[in-house]
Amino acid sequence: MKGLVFTEFMSLVESTWGEDMVDDLIDEVNPPSGGAYTTVATYTYEELVSLVSALSEKTGIPVPQLVHTFGRYLGPRFASKFPLFFTTSPDLFDLLKKIDNHIHVEVRKLYPDAELPHFSFEQSQPDLLTMHYRSSRHLGDLAHGLIEACAEYYQTPIHIERQQHACDDGAHETFQVRRL
To answer: Where are the transmembrane segments (predicted)?
Structure first.
């Protein structure tokens, strides 16, 4: 996983629970990286899982809720760091439909080794977008939170129905995003 995910996760931890919690997590997990993260380096998914699990133990907040919260945190961070993706999309659905064919293409230009989730879309109605999420990692809760955060950016009230599918090689989930 790209270091940006780790630096943003640690930023969330520090802003929510303080610098001591960051130090406690690193001490407890003793990650292979030593906990010194940079945005351009690559770290293992297992390292992120260990950090989130340790945070869950320390806070009593379930892992899925923490990962969802992280997704919601990433929305405004991405809007600030990568404003062009947001300002060139007139609405939420336009942004979401650009994930694979535009946003991830640009990410791969910068980070050719990035392992990114795959999204496909169906839109049978103007106010309903069905997103199919596939990933070798189980981060559907992050995707869910990120979708909600992007909806807030566009000031678009939404309702999300989410369905998990059996999958042998990672995660496959469907998000039905309805504009209200």
So the answer is: none
pLDDT in tens, 31-80: 999 999 999 899 999 999 999 999 999 999 999 999 999 999 999 999 99
- One of 3.90.1150.10, 3.40.50.1100, 3.40.50.720, 3.90.1520.10 is the CATH number of 92-179, namely 3.90.1520.10
Reading the block at residue 63, the tokens are 């892992």
Q: Is 79 in contact with 93 (CB distance < 8 Å)?
A: no
pLDDT at 35: 94
Q: Is the pTM of this model over 0.85?
A: yes
At residue 125, φ and ψ (nearest 5 deg) are -135, 150
Do residues 147 and 129 lie in contact, with contact meaning Cβ atoms separated by under 8 Å? no
Distance in angstroms (rounded) separating the CA atoms of residues 72 and 137 = 18
Residue that the structure tokens 């995660």 belong to: 171
Which H or E run contains 22? helix 19-29
